[in-house]
Amino acid sequence: MSTYLILSIVVGLVALGVAVMLSNAISAANAGTARMKEIAGYIHEGAMAFLYREYKYLAIFIVVVAAIIATFLSVSTALCFIGGAVFSICAGYLGMNVATKANVRTAEAARHGMSEALKIAFSGGAVMGLGVVGLGIAGLAVAYFVFDRNIDIVTGFGLGASSIALFARVGGGIYTKAADVGADLVGKVEAGIPEDDPRNPATIADNVGDNVGDVAGMGADLFESYVGAIISALTLGAVAYPGGEGVEFVFMLAVAGILASIIGVMFARSSKSQNPQAALNSGTYIGGAIVIAAAAYLSNSLFGSLDAFWAIAAGLLVGMIIGKITEIYTSADFGSVKKIAQQSETGPATTIIAGLAVGMYSTFWPMLFICIGVIVSFFVMGGATNGGMGLFGISLAAVGMLSTTGLTVAVDAYGPIADNAGGIAEMSELPPEVREITDKLDSVGNTTAAIGKGFAIGSAALTALALFSAYAHTVNLTTIDLLNPVTLVGLFIGATLPFVFGAMTMESVGKAAYEMIEEVRRQFREIPGLLEGKAKADYRKCVDISTAAALHEMILPGVLAIVAPLLIGFLFGTEALGGMIGGSLAAGVLVAILMANAGGAWDNAKKYIESGVHGGKGSEAHKAAVTGDTVGDPFKDTSGPAMNILIKLMTIVSLVFAPVLAAHGGILLNFFK
Amino acid sequence: MSTYLILSIVVGLVALGVAVMLSNAISAANAGTARMKEIAGYIHEGAMAFLYREYKYLAIFIVVVAAIIATFLSVSTALCFIGGAVFSICAGYLGMNVATKANVRTAEAARHGMSEALKIAFSGGAVMGLGVVGLGIAGLAVAYFVFDRNIDIVTGFGLGASSIALFARVGGGIYTKAADVGADLVGKVEAGIPEDDPRNPATIADNVGDNVGDVAGMGADLFESYVGAIISALTLGAVAYPGGEGVEFVFMLAVAGILASIIGVMFARSSKSQNPQAALNSGTYIGGAIVIAAAAYLSNSLFGSLDAFWAIAAGLLVGMIIGKITEIYTSADFGSVKKIAQQSETGPATTIIAGLAVGMYSTFWPMLFICIGVIVSFFVMGGATNGGMGLFGISLAAVGMLSTTGLTVAVDAYGPIADNAGGIAEMSELPPEVREITDKLDSVGNTTAAIGKGFAIGSAALTALALFSAYAHTVNLTTIDLLNPVTLVGLFIGATLPFVFGAMTMESVGKAAYEMIEEVRRQFREIPGLLEGKAKADYRKCVDISTAAALHEMILPGVLAIVAPLLIGFLFGTEALGGMIGGSLAAGVLVAILMANAGGAWDNAKKYIESGVHGGKGSEAHKAAVTGDTVGDPFKDTSGPAMNILIKLMTIVSLVFAPVLAAHGGILLNFFK
């Protein structure tokens, strides 16, 4: 086994070891009062019940798809697929298990101060972050070694990761938003009781949702991104450097990224700062600096030039810029959110129009910078004279963005843990200072998460693009020509799919939320003394509604994403499928940005009004802003994030099935000819 | 001059003659009471004032662009550009002038019965319909003859038509929606007075808006579609048949379409049926049948086969199917609208989510049928062995859809005339039976217009696609290869533009509506006795707000559409520009369908609730539905329809400037290399 593969496996195991250590430290912390333990128990139980039921569906899916792959491709690819799927499930399980322990301990720690609470919450996030990257790199290195460096087979690992990610994101997203919308609309708006009030029957489901959607769903999502980016870089690196330096570079960069993440996590965790933002930033900057230095060193020592370093630096820079742009469109410190808040004065309709306009506008600059990233990383690697080298450059930009995924996930997952801690504090009637601390932690998490979103979107676009090139290489396409009407038809169909997919997921949230609303209304009506706090709400019923809806509704979009590319490939051939991938890539990235930013902007416009402007809480403007926020919920937490996975999943399906499609695709086309 | 050119000019003049005859008949009709004449006078005056101010801006634009064209291309092209622009303005002026006469006379006629009112309103629409096609075909035939059959020069005529159309659509759309939202939100919702109540200061602006947006804007829009489709077919027909039969076929088909339209108009107008739907349908079916027969005859006699006929039939059929699909998604007789109405029960947020989901879903089937239309019309003409012939087939499908544009416009423009008649009846306090008749006419118009929208969207996609092929031919591109990252970057940028354009236009409506709302609130507050009906509202102030906002806000989107393709072409070259057109085509059609259908569905969900379900008028569900309708207004009447023009305008800009771009484009690309 080569040194870099051994190193990858060892560093992957180290990351997992650190994760276990942090997890033990969390378990050892004080879990608070009996009431706190009881509530945390409900949440943990609801979350685990959801996961186990979800796994039953996924097991069937994995078996069926593995059988198909084994039949039409190879048993090795099927094994890789199973490996990717199972590792993805492990990453999600690990993250959620620790998150549902860390939430209550964060609440307890918050009774003693900010830095204590930050330490627990951030450790919870870090367990998932290090779990994701550790499982990812170790799994890929093992698969690469076992299957004799045949990257076509290892791609199956990516397919497993991507398909589980889509189900987890869609299922988790529907779960969390159905519960959230139900809890808010009936509890806050109709009954006038505060957020997370124990009288609200949907409040446990709401807190479970934060875990299954924002923690487990997000973990599977980033596992998929991480694995996908590395696979695309391995594929193109093997083409660009037949001697193997390309592959070595990619693995070594990932190793450096994981070490950087571990150091960054330790740094942020040990910070004694009372300012959580400063603690998170210090960790993030240190991690980033280590990766940059490592990229320069590796580029020079393996390729004898800094070309690859520049591609990676371009990727990192574009990711940071997109993160900053995201913040400008979604933070109340800037004009867009203020404009939405102002339009709330003339009612919900103008609030919605303004938010949609912000979301649509906000596509421009990120897309432009993605394009700049593509152009720079392509040409800096010499793409003008050697196309394959240029494409490798694009994939390196994506790997650069995702190298510190361990840190990104830690920061991202810490938000929902703090949010949950606040919920537990509220439901356990802890003193208001505790809630203040968890709110502060939560809001810092939101800002930092914006940067993470920039990396997620940017890397999704670049990774999909690199996978797209890998696909074309595998099926031996020399052009994907838009002047061929069949390719253009592929493009049209591909561009339509993100819209259909968005519609499906939004409608699922609408349906599930409708059921939830009816149930909460029913409980308020039929359980005597509930609103007066004398009777107990039936939490379990609401948890069941969210669970059943999420599992039922995740199937169709998931199947669509896998079947659509195969259908187009078999009917119209590999070039039309290339067009389809291009179309879904462009439209998917746009819709994802629109939804994420419109949702974020509405959310913060509401919070901005709650801070006292335009009449503050309870005013007509506030009601309009709540409507905007409710529309934005499925945008930013269900449909939008799933879009990033959709485009990569469709691309990787095409890539894995490329050999079959190249041999047997284009049935309908042959008929026309 | 060839016989077919003489015929084209003669038939064009005949269409204009019939239009003048119908216009005289309308002028001769009774214009009702003094109060009716007064109100109609305000509307006529406001509409004309807007047009004249708009023309001042357009004149500057025309002169500047003509100078640029004369400098960089040729004086002949500049003359064609001016011709197209001026003819487009004439079509809009003609239509609006007659519409603002027909409205009051329709109201008066409605006092005597349904068929009398239908006759006037439909004649008003027919004047514009025949004006559009008469000016279009005569203008093109003259240009084609004068500039010696040089289609590259004649394309300038299309550029003139398209650019004026964009300004007219955007300006008119902003005008009408600002007035509508302002009148509705303050008048209906806040003050609780009925629609078109004379106490509402924005009511005249609202009725003016129907004319400048739905009549003049729509006229310029369809003039552009008609001219664009014919130009693309002429360009590709000249390539496919160097002997000239292709060109002859296109002109002759247009001639047959105009004659069919005249006959259809006469038939619908003379119908004595008390059922306006039946009258309109009879005219439409007869017109369609004549075109089908003519296509078969011409195809056989000119080409010796029915191939071209099948391409045209495919286009017509796809247009009709898309129309039917549109109806399914937007009519209260079907599930989607009912689902939105049901979601209104849980408030405005779920109404919005449901409507957006319907809009996103509704993109799928139309796109699929557009793709089928492309595939069939391409392969039926032998595209598998002769690509040029296949592309000509695609352009013929578009021409087929638009051949009866005269009838489509007549039916489309009759709706706003009936709507205006209702407003005048209300403001003049005519008996409620009159309003019932005009409402009935209006609602029939809405259904029939859905089919027209199907043709508009389908033909826009096919025309843009054909123009795109013409562009590639002119700049001598053999491929537009998505595997080239620069082309893919073009695709990304192109797909982003419809989103940015949509954001711009929606934000403009939001801004203008905000001003309007403030003004109406101010008048209610500051004019003593206004709400009691004792004082007169200051209509002129509201008209001024809409006018100023519309003219100010139409500039940026219009300039964007013209500058963007030139910028990409000059910086990144003709292939990247090809990618950009492909991207904007796909995304633009999708966003256009989404917006049109979501807007239509919200509108009808509101009307469905008003018919008495879910609590009926005044219920909470109704309020939520009104919010949906208000969000849908700029969707369906401003941003959505402008999207169709945007994609064609960008393509035709590329086509006209193709020679310059081929010679000097790709500056930045050369730098990278």
Automatic annotation (TrEMBL), chains A, B:
One of its GO terms (cellular component) is plasma membrane. Its EC number is 7.2.3.1. Requires K(+) for maximal activity. One of its GO terms (molecular function) is magnesium ion binding. The record marks A449 as: Determinant of potassium dependence. GO terms for biological process: sodium ion transport. Pfam families: H_PPase. Homodimer. It comes from Phascolarctobacterium faecium. This is Putative K(+)-stimulated pyrophosphate-energized sodium pump. The gene is hppA. It is found in: Cell membrane; Endomembrane system. It is a multi-pass membrane protein. Belongs to the H(+)-translocating pyrophosphatase (TC 3.A.10) family. K(+)-stimulated subfamily. HAMAP family: PPase_energized_pump (MF_01129). Its cofactor is Mg(2+). Keywords: Cell membrane, Hydrolase, Ion transport, Magnesium, Membrane, Potassium, Sodium, Sodium transport, Translocase, Transmembrane, Transmembrane helix, Transport. It catalyses: Na(+)(in) + diphosphate + H2O = Na(+)(out) + 2 phosphate + H(+). The chain crosses the membrane at residues 6-27, 57-75, 81-99, 120-147, 153-170, 226-243, 249-267, 279-298, 310-330, 351-379, 391-411, 455-474, 486-506, 554-573, 579-598, 645-672. Sodium pump that utilizes the energy of pyrophosphate hydrolysis as the driving force for Na(+) movement across the membrane.
